[in-house]
């Protein structure tokens, strides 16, 4: 509303001496509290998942599939393509989950001012969910590469079905959280309700 009214109307006071901004803040106090509660619950839940992924991906890089060579300490399968896929996807999962944790932490420690609900908090939520989704995908790629390194030569027939079943969590997360991500992005960066 602020963008479509004349600037003079922003300063006019009602019979009780309140500006439009003061009246808006007063009228939407409960909505802000509900929004804060929802954001905190969502950020806490997603942060828990991102923290678990961070922990697992950090530990996975030090316990590489196939083990290390006793002579030089390097991973045994270091020069194979599947190991390179594992290493890259593990690093991407680790870094994106750390970014996700930081985004959700910034939501939890936000001051929840009225203007934060317009751009700042939705932007953080969008980045947090997107990086969490990316970390889940790259974690599953790392799992598939590890599975191939460990069992690919002896049990090749079981690698592909197991890897496909491992994709179910990413698909579920996408189906459940993608609408929230789209809504958050469209409300934050879209044309808004007044363009309809």
Weakly predicted, low-confidence segments: none
What's the story with the biggest beta sheet?
none
Structure summary, number of beta strands: 0
Number of helical elements? 6
Structural class designation: mainly alpha
| N-to-C series of helices and strands | HHHHHH
User: In percent, how much strand structure appears in the residues?
Assistant: under 5%
Question: What does the overall shape look like?
Answer: elongated
Q: What would you say this structure looks like, in words?
A:
The chain is an all-alpha fold and about 200 residues long. The chain has 6 helices and no strands. The chain has helices at about 20-25, 30-60, 80-110, 120-150, 155-165, 170-190. Helix 2 (about 30-60) packs parallel to helix 4 and helix 3 runs antiparallel to helix 4. The radius of gyration is 24 Å and the shape is elongated. The model has no long low-confidence stretch (mean pLDDT about 85).
Brief account:
This protein has 196 residues and is mostly helical. The protein contains six helices and no strands.
Layout: helices, strands, pairs:
Elements lengths: L19 H8 L1 H34 L18 H28 L11 H32 L4 H11 L1 H22 L7
Question: Key terms for this structure?
Answer:
single chain, 196 residues, mainly alpha, 6 helices, 69% helix, elongated
């Amino acid at each position: 509303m602020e963008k479509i009214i004349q600037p003079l109307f922003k300063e006019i006071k009602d019979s009780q001496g309140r500006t439009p901004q003061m009246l808006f803040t007063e009228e939407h106090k409960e909505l802000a509290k509900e929004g804060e509660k929802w954001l905190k619950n969502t950020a806490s839940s997603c942060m828990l998942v991102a923290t678990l992924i961070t922990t697992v991906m950090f530990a996975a890089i030090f316990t590489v599939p196939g083990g290390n060579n006793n002579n030089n300490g390097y991973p045994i399968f270091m020069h194979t393509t599947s190991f390179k896929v594992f290493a890259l996807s593990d690093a991407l999962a680790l870094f994106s989950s750390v970014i996700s944790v930081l985004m959700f932490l910034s939501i939890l420690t936000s001051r929840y001012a009225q203007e934060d609900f317009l751009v700042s908090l939705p932007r953080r939520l969008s980045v947090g969910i997107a990086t969490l989704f990316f970390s889940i995908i790259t974690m599953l790629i790392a799992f598939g590469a590890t599975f191939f390194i460990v069992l690919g030569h002896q049990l090749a027939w079981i690698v592909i079905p197991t890897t496909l079943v491992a994709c179910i969590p990413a698909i579920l997360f996408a189906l459940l959280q993608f609408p929230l991500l789209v809504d958050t992005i469209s409300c934050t960066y879209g044309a808004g309700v007044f363009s309809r």
